[in-house]
Amino acid sequence: MKVEYDPEADILYIRIKDGKIKETKDLDEDVWIDVNDRGEIVGIEIWQARKHVIPEILKFLKKGKEVKAFIEA
């Protein structure tokens, strides 16, 4: 897996596996998936990543800190 982020365009691309892309399908206004000829997901492109992804990552990190504090208590 490989993750690329373009901060100027605010686009996050997650390559799940190598391979030729047969088709790109839109899942949402800002989310597309690339699929190969077998219908497997090859990659995911997310526009406006700061809006869609960063808040979720921050929630995840906060939850992790809460769990760690609970375990250490």
UniProtKB/TrEMBL annotation:
Pfam hit, one: DUF2283
Xref: InterPro entries: DUF2283 (IPR019270)
Superkingdom of origin: Archaea
Protein name listed in UniProt: DUF2283 domain-containing protein
